[in-house]
Amino acid sequence: MSNTYFYEVIRIQTLVGEVSQIFLEPGSHLALSYEAGQYVNVLHRDQSASPLSIACAPFSSRVLEFHLFHPPENHQARDLLQMGKKEKSWRLTGPFGDCTVGRLHPRKPLFFIARGTGFASVKAVIEALSQAQRRPPMHLYWSMPLRSEFYLENLLEQWAEEIDGFGCTLISRDHRAGKADSLCETLIHDWGDLSDCQIYASGSPSFVNAAFSILRDYGLQRSFFYSDVVSG
């Protein structure tokens, strides 16, 4: 059974549109111990829970970062935002997830594919790899329905300058470009054979499963497709 952790919300800022960046620090001496790539459940007042990926590698400061997409129709996400603003605290359980930075192959070319705020866990893994003594070449494919919906682009530029072997492709030609097939088509066009590659996927279950069903036809091995939501 996982522990419950009490965290104080220390800052909320809008990243773009209805996506907020939320920073928390432990409300007591007990802090969450986790690996980059994991997620937590955030408890609501009624004890229901919303899973949320941790958007930063473990730091000595013990501050946690999350990216919350909270459109009006997502009542649970709106509730989390209001809890952060009014009560200024969250209760977390976890960590959860097996697809962590420690499972990645240190040499095989690594492709990140992310949809929307699926970028959060990718960010955590890239931050951890940037500090590793050995890391594979990395390329991020990130899709949004609209070009204006991307965020933290200055961070992407910083990674490109500071991390050897890092590249990034943003995909937002139209509303269809947010689907798995369009992102995968771009990746396949760029790289072709994926038999000696590894892929870290982050997004909705439908996005991740659709991506795997496409990419396995181009040589991708199941053992090198990393996601906690993939089935089959």
For this structure, the quaternary state is single chain
| Structural class label | alpha/beta
Biggest sheet character: 6 strands, antiparallel
As a percent range, the share of strand residues is 25-35%
Tell me, what is the CATH class of the largest domain?
Answer: Alpha Beta
Helix percentage: 25-40%
Low-confidence stretches: none
Strand segment tally: 11
Mean pLDDT: 92
Rg, Cα atoms, Å: 17 Å
How many helices? The count is 5
- Please name the CATH topology of the largest domain: Rossmann fold
| Count of domains | 2
| CATH H-tier superfamily of the largest domain | Nucleotide-binding domain of ferredoxin-NADP reductase (FNR) module
Please write the string of helix (H) and strand (E) elements.
EEEEEHEEHEHEHEHE
Shape: globular
Give an account of the 3D structure.
The chain contains 5 helices and 11 strands, in the order βββββαββαβαβαβαβ. The chain is an alpha/beta fold. The chain folds into 2 domains: 4-96, Translation factors (Elongation Factor Tu (Ef-tu), domain 3), CATH 2.40.30.10; 101-229, Rossmann fold (3-Layer(aba) Sandwich). It has a 6-stranded antiparallel β-sheet, with helices on one face. Strands 9-8-7-10-11 form a 5-stranded parallel β-sheet, with helices on both faces. The longest helix has 13 residues, at 75-87. The chain is globular and about 50 Å long. The two termini are 26 Å apart. The model has no long low-confidence stretch (mean pLDDT 92).
Describe this structure in a few short sentences.
The protein has 232 residues and is α/β, with parallel strands linked by helices. The chain has 5 helices and 11 strands; from the N terminus they run βββββαββαβαβαβαβ. The chain folds into 2 domains: 93 residues, Elongation Factor Tu (Ef-tu), domain 3, CATH 2.40.30.10; 129 residues, Nucleotide-binding domain of ferredoxin-NADP reductase (FNR) module (Rossmann fold).
